[in-house]
Fold:
Amino acid sequence: MDCQSQTRQNRNGIAVAGNLIVDFVKNIAAYPAMGMLTNIYDISQGVGGCAANTAVDLAKLDPDLPLTVLGRIGDDESGRFVTRTLEQYGIGSERIKVSDSEPTSFTDVMSLPSGERTFFHKRGANAAFSPADIDLGTLSCDIFHIGYILLLDAFDKEDFEYGTVMARFLCDLQSRGIKTSIDIVSSDDLDAYEKKIVPALRYTDYVIINEVEACGIWHLEPRLPDGSIHKENVRTAMRKIAEAGTRERVVVHAKEMGFCLDVATGRMTELPSLKLNPADIKGSVGAGDAFCAGSLYAIYHQYNDEKLLSFASAVAATSLFEANATDGIRPYREVLAIAEKYQR
Structure:
């Protein structure tokens, strides 16, 4: 079904919806074998998930950027920690619903010194977040970003007409003249990728995901046998995302580099990541959301594709300087300086 966009009204800012999580980041020396022990040498707590991470990152980049956060939390201390954190950065929590039956979603993040990490996740209140929680009639934003597909049970449900509830919801947004943007979560369930993600692409203006997710949609290998990124497969995956209906930009980030496809022209832009001192890297939790925040900021301010990748990769780099998802993010002028400071 086609979505006819209305004339865009006097909207501004970015709305970020989806997973609201508390991350308990536990730094470990190594993953233990089954039944064995490893030591935790540092613990930190921070907000996590698409909605919380991306919104806080955007607020830290530019405190004057109008932001709205939408999602669900539990009636518990973790939920109050989420709203306190958002309010600390001037982000209102009035559109966040409180569940009286499910706890706030949380993740135990096991992080290695190399930056690699493993997640143990409790879905909690996020599973109940649905379009019914969002009053589109009072929503005023230029861009609506939502994630993560595959981790929002109510949005991931099948819809007979649109394919998924998420697809119908994105169509509703576009029909109101609001630009739509999605992020997804990495998963081994490739059948779910195709079933739950492809329908949403038709009603999406911007896709901002990593190389594993982009290739996973189409059952392509994101890495070569030597572990290096399979650039041709990533490019193929991005073009297929555009062919599936994405309207404006497909952005893919990987540890080594970023890619941006301008759908209208077919132009592919690629840029290597910044070369950081490994000793300065404390963890990569939230690096993908940081790249996403940088991309949204760049899109909102109409950066060209090369400047978008440069800025987004620099935002992601700053996130590596701290163990949790958001503490490392700097104001946008500092991010621009970091992009110039390091080689690629």
Notes: The mean pLDDT is 92. The longest strand covers residues 40-48. The first helix runs from residue 50 to 61.
